[in-house]
Design a protein that fits this description.
two-stranded antiparallel ribbon, 12 strands, four-stranded antiparallel beta sheet, 9 helices, 361 residues
């Protein structure tokens, strides 16, 4: 990886983490909670400066961050943690304010993704599939590549049947029953030619990677073009994309628990940095899209009802709302300990797989 790409990858992680912690920080301040520390990263302090009652620090390990609020019982509850003004302690605040502070991090991550995607739509336009049967990419060693089809070719007929759209071409391939088809194409330079292609029967896979029905394909990818849009359409598309990505993440986690998706597909911080670096090499637009996706991931994953995560704290508060009082401190401590072990084991697992991917390729 180029050094500039690595710096871009680190910047992506830093910005997304900063936005998450900023959500907790701002809502905490709005609720008049005494905020002791705003930390970017973990481990040894690289830089620290105190402004007012809050110490702002940058730590060595840039894989997270935290906002430490006075009187946060789950984080210790000792005398050093006590607020200077009892009314400004986290646990002294009404339940709805505490829930708002905890939920603010994931919520701001999702809002940040919408902001990025809206800006990209306004700056670059929205990607729309090309209406014609123009091939954007050809998969290596697949029937289309073997036969000689190339990126930029536009299919105008299949076995003598005129083709006007991509969907018409796909329908002819799917109905081929595996027999060889003659593709009449026009190359990117306008030169016409004919190519014989024999479709192969392959398993369809959904967005989660689960195998579906067998269909005939030739190994080509559809092209897209960017269409200019106004602010309302850009915002609407950004919200829709954020919702779709969020539901896909929830669906993936559900399928992992059910054993329907391989754990080998999970990626950790090393993979995130590698992918961010690759996107940075492709240009600003792909990097911004990737930043939005990482922000959505951080927001949604943090809402999972796992102790230690924001969703776990919200789960505790849900029990408190039902019971009329918090769960016993010992129960919460055991739950948080379990959550830390679970997250720690998961981190070790995904980092191990990241390293294997880098070594094996």
């Amino acid at each position: 990886m180029a050094s500039g790409s690595i710096l871009a990858a680190i910047l992506v992680l830093a910005v997304v983490i900063f936005v998450h912690e900023l959500g907790h920080f701002l809502v905490g301040k709005w609720c008049n909670v005494e905020v002791r520390v705003f930390s970017m990263g973990f481990g040894p302090t690289l830089f620290a400066r105190r402004f007012g009652e809050t110490t702002y620090r940058v730590a060595l390990i840039p894989l997270g961050g935290y906002v430490k609020m006075a009187g946060y019982e789950e984080e210790g509850g000792d005398s050093e943690d006590a607020p200077t003004d009892p009314a400004r302690g986290f646990t002294s605040k009404p339940l709805w304010q505490r829930a708002a502070i905890v939920a603010a991090g994931p919520a701001v991550n999702l809002a940040f993704a919408v902001l990025i995607l809206t800006g990209c739509a306004l700056a670059y336009g929205l990607a729309e599939p090309t209406p014609t049967a123009t091939i954007a990419d050809v998969a290596i060693d697949k029937p289309a590549a073997v036969a000689g089809l190339a990126a930029g070719d536009t299919v105008v007929a299949v076995s003598g049947k005129p083709i006007a759209t991509w969907d018409e071409m796909v329908a002819e391939i799917a109905a081929s029953s595996g027999r060889t088809l003659r593709f009449d194409v026009v190359a990117a330079d306008g030169a016409p030619r004919s190519v014989d292609v024999t479709p192969a029967l392959v398993a369809q896979r959904d967005e989660y990677g689960e195998a579906g029905p067998m269909v005939y394909q030739i190994g080509v990818r559809r092209g897209y073009e960017f269409v200019s849009v106004g602010p309302v359409k850009a915002l609407s598309a950004a919200v829709e994309r954020t919702w779709q990505d969020s539901t896909m993440i929830v669906g993936t986690v559900t399928r992992l628990i059910q054993g329907r998706v391989s754990t080998g597909d999970l990626g950790g911080p090393i993979l995130v940095v590698a992918e961010a670096s690759r996107q940075a090499q492709s240009g600003l637009q792909p990097l911004l899209f990737f930043m939005a996706l990482i922000s959505i991931n951080l927001g949604v994953v943090n809402l999972l009802p796992i102790p230690v995560l924001d969703g776990g704290h919200l789960m505790f508060m849900g029990f408190e709302a039902v019971r009329g009082r918090p769960l016993p401190l010992r129960v919460r401590e055991y739950a948080l300990g379990f959550g830390m072990m679970l997250i720690g084991a998961l981190m070790l697992f995904v980092v191990f797989h990241d390293i294997v991917r880098l070594v094996v390729g």
